[in-house]
Structures are given as C-alpha cells and as structure tokens.
Amino acid sequence: MRFCLFTDEYDHFANELLSFNLDLFKDSVTKHGFVRKFYEEIKKGTQTIIERLFMTGVSPGLSKILCKLIIVD
C-alpha cells in the first residue's frame, strides 16, 4: 500500500524561527539539522511508500531558501 502525503504551509515554522530565533533556524535547516533529516526521510519514502507528495508554502522567498538548504546536497 502506498500513500499520498499532503503538507500545508510546510515553511510556516521557518517563518516563525526567522522572526524570533535566527540561530535555531540555521541549526534546524543546515546539513545536520532535524528539518533537513526529516525531509530526507520523506524523500526516501517517495521511493517506497509515498506515491504522491504535495506541499504548499506560505512564503515564496523562504521556499527557495529552504529548498536549497534542505533538498539540494
């Protein structure tokens, strides 16, 4: 059985961190941060259990930053 994963406003947490705690934001999204690890696991899941993935963001500028930091090695 495979699943569809829908995530609304996946970058909302990052907007909050950027507003109130820049150091925590940097720690969360860099190579060894928990956010990057989380999305790496989702990416792995697309090869096995996740059939479709749909994610929406609330801020186009931040989405570009997060994609570069999280998805691209």
Task: Estimate what percentage of residues fall within beta strands.
Answer: 15-25%
> How many helix segments?
4
**Which strand order do you get reading across the main beta sheet?**
1-2
Average pLDDT: 78
Overview of the structural elements:
- The protein has helices at 12-20, 22-29, 34-45, 60-71; strands at 3-7, 50-55.
- The chain has one domain (3-71).
- It is flat, with a radius of gyration of 13 Å.
- It is an alpha+beta fold.
- The N and C termini lie far apart (30 Å).
- The chain is 56% helix and 15% strand.
- It has a two-stranded parallel ribbon.
- The chain contains four helices and two strands, in the order βαααβα.
Provide a short characterization of the protein structure.
With 73 residues, the protein is an alpha+beta fold. The chain is 56% helix and 15% strand. The mean pLDDT is 78.
